[in-house]
Each structure stands twice: as structure tokens, then as C-alpha cells.
């Protein structure tokens, strides 16, 4: 068995890898606790299947996977003593190197489980961080994942070693640290310094993205953002619409890095389509925070396309998890039109029955069934986007006198100029289309010189 690195033994310069990188896949056991009375949108069968999918997203040899019934969460080991004993026997008999537990373990619970079973133990958060670490391809993605890793490690470092405070000497003025404390403080300082550095670099990324969005805004090109549960088919749909060739596999978290492409709607209007990272139940807050610069593409979108895998029996619960993350970002139907894209209809045995019973998650502008794989429903889907954008934008006649030449530049930067008459002695008349985000500024700037167009 190869050596594992403890998550609290962090080194600056890059995120730890929790799972051994050896030629043979790590022999792994999966434990999915079913806690009595714990509320969840997801059934235990759906949670178990998803956890198996998460573990299968990286190179592991899954030896066993089981659901463990938990009457009450134990502070020391999370699961009961009988289950711990049974796991320890199984680990020894089947030479298990790694136990993955589908729960948020405290450092004490993790250490006790490792001590009792003799295997390395990782919780759900650590597994998701590991997957993100493998998937990150761009410099920005690597920085975001490393920041999330270090924030996770920092919390475990502090809590895991608090027992050493008992070793403090009692002599002198009490400033003498006990054994190990100097190293702990050094580790904490190095991690903190690295976090500050990463946050500064990601702030530059955020500013760059903000400038790019500002340029798109000035060009009056609407932004349409794809969001959804991981593996719902966002990237396949993105590729179908753009021909971009973004990595799209039947794999959890296949996409981490946001991609933006320009597409043309049926009547010629251009929009920017943005593909984003997939969401998942109990997505670690550190990851949401680290990817905030990327997810701001969603916050500033003109339309949000919530892609749902309608063929997944757990699609309703998955949709609720997506809405939870959107809420964390401050996005709702009150701020942005949300369209539900019911994807993978080609996999349904009885499409009419399933679609008739499928309800929207929260308030949505519309729902549309499609198959990103076959193209079914895509023309109607594109027409719907065009219709919504048309409902949002209004068209105006604008008069610009010669003395207000700067207004012409403003129109080209903040509106879509549909037509322009020949200049006369008193000025020039324009027909422009104005999106809601610029409407207030437009009405204030051109007060008294506008009329609503019939276009």
C-alpha cells in the first residue's frame, strides 16, 4: 500500500491529494450512513447511487459499498460501535486501504474511525475536493480548487490538534509552547499565507471576468447561462448549440471551467452562452466560495437555463439542490428569468407520462423538453429563448441632436441599434432595442427625446 498524506499536514504550493497515486487503484470501501430522522430531498437509494458515482469519478477499486443505518450520530465515530467493529473486520479481511463515508465527518470522528478500522478515512467533502482537483484543467480552475482544499485543510489542522494544548508547560509566564505547537503554528501560518495569495490572484480573475462582462454588456449581447446538477447534460447541450467540443462525458463534474461562446438565434439575434460547473447535493461551501468568480457569470445572466436530467428518478431532488446553490448566489426567479430545460427525453420509455407528471422546481418562466444528444426539441428551445429576450427588451425611436454626439456612443455601447436615419439639420434619428438592465439609464439619459416603436 502506498503512503497517504494527512490532510492537516499541509504544505504551501498546492492542494494535497488525499488519495494515493499508485499504479494499482486504491482498494476502497464505501459507507453511506442513513441517519434516522435526518431530512433530505433525496431517497437513501438515490444518495447511495450518487455516492457510488462520485467514487467512480476517480481511479478507485470499489471493493464494497453499503448503506449503514444510524439511529443517532455518535460524536466520536458518527456511526455506532457495532458498525465500526464490523467495518474493521471487513477492512482487515478484504485489505481495504481507503474508506469513503458519505457524511461530513469532524476531524475527531475521522481520526477515531481510522484508528478503529486501520484504513484511511475520507468524508464526502474530501472526496468532492479530490474529484475537483483531478478535473481542474485551466490555471483558474487549479487556483479555485487549491483555495478550497486549503480552507478545508486549515479547519482540520486547527481542530485536529487542539488536544496538544494540554501539553503546554506550566512554568514561567505561560508563553512556552508544548511539543508540536511550534510546528502547528508554522503550518497554520503557511496555509494562511497561501490562502491570502490565492485569494489575491482570484480577485484579479474576478476583475478580468467583470471587464469581459462589461464589454459584452456594452455590445448589447445578452448572456444566457446554463446551470444544473452535475451530469444533467449541460456540456452536451452546450456543444449541440455551439459546436464548441467542450469535454462532455457521462461523468460527474466533467466540466469545471466556465466556457462562453456566441450563438445565433433563429431570427439572427446573437447571445453569449455560458457553460458552468455542475452542482451537487451538499456542495462544500468552500467550493462555492472559491468558484464565486466563475459563478458570477450566472449572477449577471439575462436568462438562466436550468438543465434537468428528466430521465433520472431523483431529478426533483436534484433540482432543489440547484435552487439552493442559486439562492446562495443571490439568484432567483425574482431577479432573472429561469427556463427549465428537461433534458434526456430520448431516454424515457413513456415520455408523455413522465413529462406530464414532472413539475417545475420553484417559479420558472417556462419549461421545455429536449434531448441534447439527439437534437430533439432544440429548435423550439431556441425560439423560446428568442421570445423571452424579445419580451424583456423594448424598442424605441430616439432623436440625437448634433450637440449631443456622446449620446450616439452611449447607444452603441448600451443598446442594439436597429436602424439609423440620414442626419438632418437638427440631428439624427435612431431605432434601438434596449434590454431591461439598461432601460432605467436609457430613459433618464434620453428623457423627452424618445418614443416607443412598433417594431
Computed over alpha carbons, the radius of gyration is: 27 Å
Strand content: 15-25%
Distance between the termini: 71 Å
Pick out the low-confidence regions.
Answer: 1-15, 158-180
Q: How many E-type strands?
A: 14
Class from secondary-structure proportions: alpha/beta
Largest sheet at a glance?
Answer: 6 strands, mixed
What count of helical segments does DSSP give? 14
User: What percent of the residues sit in helical stretches (DSSP H or I)?
Assistant: 40-55%
**Order of strands in the sheet with most strands:** 6-7-5-8-9-10
Average pLDDT value?
A: 80
State the shape.
elongated
Order of helices and strands: EHEHEHEHHHEHEEHHEHEHEHEHEEHE
Descriptive report:
The protein has 455 residues and is an alpha/beta fold. It contains 14 helices and 14 strands. Helix 6 runs parallel beside helix 9.
Overview features:
455 residues; 4-stranded parallel sheet; 14 helices; 14 strands; elongated
Short description:
The protein has 455 residues and is α/β, with parallel strands linked by helices.
